[in-house]
Amino acid sequence: MISIQREDVDISRLVQEAKHPGAGAILVFDGIVRNDDITEMELEAYEGVALRELEHIAMEASAQHGLLSVDIVHRIGRLRVGENILVIVVSAAHRKEAYDGSRFILEAIKEKVPIWKKELRTGGDRWVAGESKNH
Amino acid sequence: MISIQREDVDISRLVQEAKHPGAGAILVFDGIVRNDDITEMELEAYEGVALRELEHIAMEASAQHGLLSVDIVHRIGRLRVGENILVIVVSAAHRKEAYDGSRFILEAIKEKVPIWKKELRTGGDRWVAGESKNH
Amino acid sequence: MSVRIRFFARFRELADPEIVTEVREGTSITALIYAVTENNQAARDAIFDQEGGFRRYVILMQNGARIETTRAGETMVADGDEIAIFPPVAGG
Amino acid sequence: MSVRIRFFARFRELADPEIVTEVREGTSITALIYAVTENNQAARDAIFDQEGGFRRYVILMQNGARIETTRAGETMVADGDEIAIFPPVAGG
Question: For chain D, which residues lie within 8 Å of any Cβ of chain B, measuring from their own Cβ?
């Protein structure tokens, strides 16, 4: 499941579905809204392009790290502190592939996928600085 | 929660409880019984010592990698293919700490904690070779 | 011919989420964006520097494919194109 | 005095999960384990090599603390001790 959505994610269900034959390790990354003195976070995506990028990243990670399954759910809209922003679930035969594959996906998302975050604060809103490399 | 137990683990509950103030990243490692032509897996622990080691590893990981929370549940007894063996849930402010801390815990468990696995096969049972360094 | 320009994040707040406009054959991406920010000094200042070049952090896409800002002046738009302009991404 | 010896994994299958035995003052860990495997050739062969030294993969603990097998001959057991003997761990 590769998705950009407003709704929350059912992590248990994704973990259950990642239990492919041959899988020995499942890794879940859950990025949540951190309490940096913010009231809420607002996320925006260039949806069509972002979804296509996520699908491309999932395929690349599977090929490079031998993943058996990849799920990526990136949420958009307004999220409160502690809410899930990004959930990545990967399964692999062994732990190294799972850790490396998961990290590869996360770094690629931060660098390439057109999604932006704005922190809503009582003192004024602030766009989160991107980590993308501008070649 | 640091535990060696026969019962299964509620991963969603652990993820929910890991949402500490200041946490931005939660990482879940779920080691499951891999379908290597086995019927079941049987796990055995030197319980008192293993629990003490897990607690020590959790403290060390928190100190070294700035983790905000650590949960480790290692199961023992007979487990079928696809069942959870080991669940590690860590939370941290940032992703790097979460990945590094989680991996540190997993490697330390494999090296130090007195737990053993036996694969039950139709062709005959087999103890899984350890990864511990015997100094 | 008709093209759609989409602004995201900080640029969207300064301009519009999207503008559909008619352009002449032979219009470059740079010329297009310069034209649609004609009456919007805040957006133009966020996107262009004082020499009229794209600011370093600006990212451009033409129908979902990245276009280097240094090439945008020689890259022509075609009928039905979707041009996107946004600051560095910050998902995850 | 009384000590408890606990065997795990493959050693448990060859011997017993645990043996409680009486020993004399001044008994080393090596001597203790050698003695309790007296009538169990399979366990003794799994634990000791032909020269009577511990096999390379054997791990020993005295009351939960690791004891190097090279030191086990000079480490004496005390009343109430729990001595554990096991192959390399394989959890996770």
Answer: 6, 8-10, 12, 56-59, 61, 64, 68, 84, 86-92
CB neighbour class for B118 (10 Å; exposed up to 12, middle 13-18, buried from 19):
buried
Q: What is the complex's ipTM, to 2 decimals?
A: 0.93
pTM of the model: 0.94
pLDDT at C15 over 70: yes
Residues in chain C: 92
Write out pLDDT tens, residues A33-81.
999 889 899 999 999 999 999 999 999 999 999 999 999 999 999 999 9
Q: Please report which confidence band the pLDDT of residue B117 belongs to, taking 50, 70 and 90 as the band edges.
A: very high
Cβ contact, residue pair A31, B21, below 8 Å = no
- The encoded tokens of residue B45 equal 């622990």
CA D87/CA B115 separation, integer angstroms: 10
Of the candidates A39, A111, A116, the residue with the CA atom closest to the CA atom of residue A82: A39
**Which residues, including other chains, have CB under 8 Å from residue B65's CB and lie 6 or more apart?**
B92, B97, B100, B101, B104
For residue C4, what are its two tokens? Answer: 């759609």
Q: Are B61 and B70 in contact (CB under 8 A)?
A: yes
Q: Cβ atoms within 10 A of the Cβ of D86, count?
A: 24
| Intra-chain end-to-end CA distance of chain D, in Å | 37
Closest to A27 (Cα-Cα) out of B103, B74, B68: B103
**Could you tell me if A11 lies within 8 Å of chain B, comparing CB atoms?**
yes
Q: Say if the Cβ atoms of C84 and A49 lie within 8 Å.
A: yes
Quick one: pLDDT at residue A132? 61
- Domains annotated for chain D, with CATH where assigned, are 2-86 (3.10.20.30)
Chains B and D touch (3+ CB pairs under 8 A): yes
Q: Which chains touch A (3 or more CB pairs under 8 A)?
A: B, C
**pLDDT value, residue A133:** 57
What's CA C82's distance to the chain center, in Å? Answer: 10
Count B/D contacts: CB-CB distance under 8 Å. 80
